[in-house]
Amino acid sequence: MIGLFRKKPVDFFTREENEQMVKAIGEAEHKTSGEIRVYIESRCRFVDPVDRAFELFQGLKMHQTAQRNAVLVYIAMKDRQLALYADQGIYDKTGKDFWHTETAKILSHFNRENYAGGISTIVQEIGDALSYHFPYDAAVDKNELPDDIVFGK
């Protein structure tokens, strides 16, 4: 999988926007044992972005969190596709309607071309849901996955 993931932004965002999104991830995860990753690429290799999100979720080893409470925010910028992929632990607690609502919210930001703001807002709202169902416990919690944004091809 060499070359599948890279960290250099593909000029979709300014340095400040990248920092804003990474800060949102860190703040959201500080309240929960859950994990949030953001993966951004130009084009979706699949017809259904959920299939691509699942592939990336596995590739990023997000399914290996202790409480199965990781969430991937997947965006294909040029194809204008996105998916929110939640592991079983958090999906079972929030239900399908929560994820449909969150997808509609991020799309409303994207429709106004507020990409970094939309991603930051959705990360914070996912963090709130995670903190409600999987609150942070300083005695046992650890950051299981990196907080940086992953930029694909």
For the record, give the distance between the C-alpha atoms at the N and C termini, rounded to a whole number: 12 Å
SSE-based structural type: alpha/beta
CATH fold-level name:
Diaminopimelate Epimerase, Chain A, domain 1
Largest sheet report: 4 strands, mixed
Q: Report the sheet-strand fraction.
A: 5-15%
Q: Report the CATH architecture.
A: Roll
Whole-number mean pLDDT: 92
Could you name the CATH class? Alpha Beta
Oligomer: single chain
Question: What is the CA-atom radius of gyration, in angstroms?
Answer: 14 Å
Secondary-structure element pattern, one letter each: HEHEEHHHE
Number of helices: 5
Number of strands: 4
Spatial strand sequence of the major β-sheet: 3-2-1-4
Helix percentage: 40-55%
Write down the domain tally. Answer: 1
List the helices and strands and how they pair.
Elements: H1 15-29, E1 35-41, H2 49-59, E2 70-76, E3 81-86, H3 88-94, H4 96-111, H5 115-133, E4 150-151
Parallel strand pairs: 1-2, 1-4
Antiparallel strand pairs: 2-3
Short précis:
The chain is an alpha/beta fold and 153 residues long. It has helices spanning 15-29, 49-59, 88-94, 96-111, 115-133, and strands at 35-41, 70-76, 81-86, 150-151. The protein is 44% helix and 14% strand.
